[in-house]
Amino acid sequence: MILNVDIYNRTNWLKIAFLIGGVIVIAFSLYYTDRIVSRIEEREKQQIQLYAEALKDNLMMEMDQSTGSLVSQIIQSNANNSVPAIHKSHGGALISRNIEIPPGLNAKEEQAFLQKELSDMISGDHGTIVFDNGLGQNDYIYYGDSKLLNQLRYYPLVQLLVVVIFFLAAYLWLSSSRKAEQNRVWVGLAKETAHQLGTPLSSLTAWVEYFKTDPRFDEEIVREIEKDVQRLDTITTRFSNIGSVPVLKDENIFETVEVFMNYLQKRISSKVHISIQNNLSDGHQTVRINKYLFEWVIENICKNAVDAMGGIGSLTITMKESRNKQIALDFSDTGKGISKKNLSKVFNAGFSTKKRGWGLGLTLAKRIVENYHNGKLYVKSSEIGKGTIFRILLPYEPNMTNAGNHLSEDTASQVSNVQS
Ligand SMILES: Nc1ncnc2c1ncn2[C@@H]1O[C@H](COP(=O)(O)OP(=O)(O)OP(=O)(O)O)[C@@H](O)[C@H]1O
Ligand SMILES: [Mg+2]
């Protein structure tokens, strides 16, 4: 189903396009703000120069009334009403403009405070304006950035942060509501399927019972029909378990896998060699599972393995203890393997590389293991032309001493048994 693969490729391209679009918008916004900052910086520099000129004139000239008031006006307001500046006279006294001096300081403390501000300004990247005060002595003006300039410098970063938080929150909300929606569809569909199958199934069961009592019907045929009806019953039970909260029971994992693999072996190619390797100690074989659903998981994984091997090869199921009180079940096949490109897609609903595949087997298996059994299902490794290992992690019940274990001592001792 190449069509499905294309859908995933398209989605990836769309994501990349959105990402590139976002980066371009952000870069443009940063560039534009940087240009505004440069312009304001230049204007503030001119303001300070004008302020210095006015100070110089004020100090040097004997002025008439009107010129004097104009110069003081420039000094007091127009030339600089926002840029923090300190005028250091030849005598060393500091006079500040647009600097908030903490209240309650005496003259000495105020000078010390301004001295500190001055050091900050000197260490900044603005130059110092030096002018002659008319007595052959130099006065100095130091200045920093206005509040507006500082705010504008950090504005794009704040804006960026807000946008990122907003998109992250929106993404999380959308993906969680999408997941909830998917859950509802899965559960609803499964419930409806179980319900639809229920009626004809009970009728078929009744018919089989009737055939059994009537000698006109061939016993062998009736037995085969009964097997099919039982299979149908198992399928219906699986769907009804998916559609409701499934009941979990303590089961012996080795026994569950062994029984099911025996069943499966008869239904697949005889050229597929199945073996089970059990490395679990006696006390760690009990897991809480829903047998019907768990068998469905094994079936999906094994059928995929058989498909990948083209009906010839070997499938080994290894059971061992893993970290964090978990049991690891490895399904390893000698099939064609999964390409790197497809590794991240195999659990996507609808992804299939088979002519007649629905691409639902692994999605379903993952849901069953992770949502209903608190476990994990993933591809442990895969190599093209060599094979694949799928791993299931299940929490074991350490306090249960093989509650569901009906294996005889003999069977248990054959822990590394091989069956075919
Ligand atoms: N053991 C494996 N070896 C190689 N490829 C695999 C293996 N298991 C799964 N795949 C790949 O993952 C894809 C998805 O598997 P999945 O079981 O979800 O769907 P499907 O088998 O194609 O269809 P169906 O819904 O009938 O199971 C497969 O089409 C195949 O390409
Ligand atoms: Mg499959």
TrEMBL record:
Database matches in SMART domains: HATPase_c
A Gene Ontology molecular function term of the record: ATP binding
Broadest EC class assigned to this enzyme: transferase
Presence of keyword Kinase: yes
EC number: 2.7.13.3
Chemical reaction(s) catalysed: ATP + protein L-histidine = ADP + protein N-phospho-L-histidine
Keyword presence, Disulfide bond: no
Key words of the record: ATP-binding, Kinase, Membrane, Nucleotide-binding, Phosphoprotein, Transferase, Transmembrane, Transmembrane helix, Two-component regulatory system
TM helices/strands, residue ranges: 12-33, 154-174
Domain of life according to the entry: Bacteria
Domain Histidine kinase: residue ranges: 192-398
UniProt xrefs under Pfam families: HATPase_c
Name of the protein described by the UniProt record: histidine kinase
Organism field: Pseudarcicella hirudinis
Highest classification ranks of the organism: Bacteria, Pseudomonadati, Bacteroidota, Cytophagia, Cytophagales
